[in-house]
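Late entry, written up from scratch paper. The run itself happened at the end of the previous shift, but nothing got recorded in the book at the time, so transcribing now.
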Amino acid sequence: MTKDMIVNADDMGLHLHIDQGILRCIDKKRVNSVSIVSSGQAVNWSLILDLSKQGVFTGLHVCLVGEPWQTQDVFFANYWDFLLAWIKKPIRLCKLVENEIDYQLKTYLDHGIPLDHIDSHQHVHMLPFVFNIIQSKAIELNVQRVRISAINKLSAVRHHPMSICLELLSKYRFRHCSQMSFQTLFCRGIQKSGHYGVEDIRNELLTCHESIEWVAHPGVSTSDLMATYPWGYDWTGEMNAYLSDAFLEIVDQNGFSIRFRDTFK
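Output as recorded:
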């Protein structure tokens, strides 16, 4: 039985050289879904609308960390800074978060782009107080898919407190979202974000026995991109893995199909 594989490229619109890598993968039909940072410096709404018309799934990459907010003079450098702010003033931050998510959603929808899915930068929407807001918006807007960042295989989880915490939160959400109106899939492509090679992909797909969302980070590793986002990613290396003939062979050998909107069940 063929399993569906959503290969979703995160961070579209964040930087021109990230977008270049994503577009190369879409052109070769290796990526069939994109998540857009609505406030990104390189976001090109007309291009994204064209991609949607070509059958690429499009969605919002909610950005609450790593980028300035659009509704407040607020900047959280990372997941932990964001969580600490919530611990200090939970009620106030929840309200501010909802306002920011509403603004990012409005910016996205005002450009007429179909909202097929919602996810977030650094998976911050797995925090319960953020997920509750995302879940409410997804139901209200009839969104087809919300990312639940659960891997569903303990041995594939990195032995790092952040990774373990994310998996526990995600597993809880997955169990409680099975009856929701939106689709939830187990995720892969998380544990080595920005560093996946062909063999890494092969090893992860060997253990996948159901349809999945693969979280991809293709790009072109220019000096400007690496200076702007010093995450240590090998964007070009990961892009080349997806563009390789071996990638398609691995996908096929493991019973997956990368389908676009017009052929998706």
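The chain has a mean pLDDT of 89.
(Scratch paper discarded after transcription.)
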